[in-house]
Specification:
Layout lengths: L7 H32 L6 H32 L12 H50 L5
Helix pairs in contact: 1-2, 1-3, 2-3
Amino acid sequence: MLFTGTPMGVMVMIMIGILILMGIVVNNGIVLVDQINQKQPALDKLSGEISQVCISRLRPVLMTVGTTVLGLLPLALGDTQLGGGGPSYSPMAIAIISGLTFSTVTSLYLVPLCYQALYRMRYNAAVRLGRANSLSRRLMPWAY
């Protein structure tokens, strides 16, 4: 605020917009991961199942983002202050619109990639743990 010369009211509205944006983005990610978890894919079919879930979630995510962006467009284009003396809502709307367009693309690509990487890591760790467990049973049968 001091460095950019931006008034305090504008910064508060941008921060509120970012909080709203975080809620929408997290919701999209949770729904995507939940649908992948409901499928419970095997490791060899993981990529195909994730692709199918992403394709099935594409339309609802785009509809949510589209309606939100279209609803906030008049607020973003106008620089009026609602109620007269309050802060302008334009920075909040611009923050939400720009964040939604960026996060839609990244969440539809990054969330599945991260899920796949973590799923493979968990699978590999379980395999290693199973091997270590069987080795310890053979080496120390008295411990079990």
